[in-house]
Amino acid sequence: MALKVYGGHTFKGGRQARTIIAAKSMKEAAEAIGTTLTEMRAYWSVSGNPKELEIALAQPGVVLYERVERSGDFQPINQDKPCAR
What whole-number distance in Å separates Cα of residue 46 and Cα of residue 49? Predict the structure, then answer.
C-alpha cells in the first residue's frame, strides 16, 4: 500500500499548528497522532501540497508540525508528549 500524507491542525505550545504525517492508512496516522479515526475523518485530509508531500514522505510515520504558520518549517513532535486533539 502506498503512503499518503495526511494534514490537519493540532495544538502545540498553546498554538494551533499545521501537522502532517505520511502513513499507509488514515487509521495508522490517527494512532501516531493520538487521535480517533472519527476525528481524522472529520478534520484531516490527504494533502496535495508538494512541499508537505516532500517533507512527510522523507520521514514516514513521523508526526511533523509547522513551527511558524505557512513557513514550511516542519519539525517532529516530541513523541513523549503527544499532540493535543
Answer: 9
Whole-Å CA distances, 9 to 1, 2, 19, 36, 53: 25, 23, 5, 14, 16
**Residue 83 included in any domain:** no
pTM: 0.83
- E strand residue ranges, 13-50: 15-23, 45-46
Predicted local distance difference test score (pLDDT) of residue 40: 95
Which amino acid does the sequence have at 19? T
Residue 19, CA distances (Å) to 1, 7, 48, 57, 67 in order: 22, 6, 14, 14, 10
- pLDDT tens track for 14-70: 888 899 999 999 999 999 999 999 999 999 999 999 999 999 999 999 999 987 666
What one-character DSSP code corresponds to residue 72?
Answer: -
Whether 84 is in a domain gets the answer no
In a domain, 81, yes or no: no
